Amino acid sequence: MDGISSGVLGYAGLKELGFNVNLHIPDYRRGHDLTPEDIAEINARFPGTTVLLTCDGGVNSHAGIRAARMLGWQTLVTDHHQELEPGSQADITVDPCRLDETYALGGICGAHVLYQILEAYAAAHQPFKLWAIRLLRLFAGLGTVSDVMPVLYENRQLVRDSLSIARLLHVSAPKTIPNPWGGMDPDPDAIDIARATLLQLLATEDHDPAYVAAFEGFAALLKAFAQAGKVRDIDSVNEGFYGFYLAPAMNSPRRTGYPIDDCFAVFTAPSIAERLAAMHRVIENNERRKELTALHLAELNDGDQPLAPWVYFSAAPVACTACSPTR
């Protein structure tokens, strides 16, 4: 979820600032690093590329960075992981966990790193865009909770701001329907995303369509969770929603082998209807992830395990061998 958050806020923010930018979604099955295969794909799809900007990764992607530089690209790395092996050839690396870094709090997420860069750029070069860029704290705060960063210092205020912005994208259903217990519940199908307070504010100004789409996607996301019975009212949009509903759903492709494209399509698809449909597919995949978890946990607990409690055998698939080398 941190990678998705940083990718979305980076793409939306750079578009809003007027940059000619495209979004590349890496194949998570290759692991966390940017690979030469990624560079080849980017070059084939976007042949006019001159600059590579990474988010939530890249500090250890030495082979990928070398491949980009061989094409003559400027390479800009934003990350929050420790460099495991020296030797990066990136033109610029911004990472609070670099050994020579003096930033006070190393525990900030990748989305927060890229957000601070966009905010600093806007403050220096396009101060009239600062309000718009600061709304992207929505995604930086989501990444903070999802990546289990310490809720201390600037992270604490960031999460508060993120939730405040998220609640401006929540729309109360105008109708109610009976529930099985004899009461009345909001009718999630009656939710009109366009009524969200923040979207109405954005509609009064001139913004890049990709920037607006990111917030429309978050509003669609909230509607999808309402239709799934996970968001009942505005009080449901809290840290628990980020950590126990949204992040697991967005992380589910890595657990099931499902394509990650839908997770980005929620915020980038051409229409609200397509974003809503993408989020429903993500939620459905998360339900499959829960079923598989229960199935394989029962296999571990109840199956024939001759080497227990030291070694357990499971037929559970490994979606990302580079991230989970053992079964």
List keywords for this structure.
inorganic pyrophosphatase (n-terminal core); 5 strands; mainly alpha; three-stranded parallel sheet; two-stranded antiparallel ribbon; 327 residues
Short description:
This protein has 327 residues and is mainly α. The chain has helices spanning 2-16, 36-45, 62-70, 110-125, 130-134, 137-146, 154-167, 197-202, 209-227, 239-256, 261-268, 272-302, and strands at 51-53, 74-78, 92-94, 176-178, 184-186.
Question: What would you note in describing this structure?
Answer:
- This protein has 327 residues and is mainly alpha-helical.
- The chain has a single domain, classed as inorganic pyrophosphatase (n-terminal core), CATH 3.90.1640.30.
- The protein is built from 12 helices and 5 strands.
- The chain has helices at 2-16, 36-45, 62-70, 110-125, 130-134, 137-146, 154-167, 197-202, 209-227, 239-256, 261-268, 272-302, and strands at 51-53, 74-78, 92-94, 176-178, 184-186.
- Strand 4 and strand 5 form a beta hairpin.
- Helix 1 packs antiparallel against helix 9 (209-227), helix 4 (110-125) packs antiparallel against helix 6 (137-146) and helix 6 (137-146) packs across helix 7 (154-167).
Low-confidence stretches: 320-327
What sort of overall outline do the alpha carbons produce when their principal axes are compared? Answer: globular
CATH architecture: Alpha-Beta Complex
At CATH level 3, the topology is inorganic pyrophosphatase (n-terminal core)
Mean pLDDT: 92
Count of helix runs = 12
Strand order of the largest sheet: 1-2-3
Considering DSSP H and I runs of 4 or more, what fraction of the residues is helical?
40-55%
Strand residues, percent: 5-15%
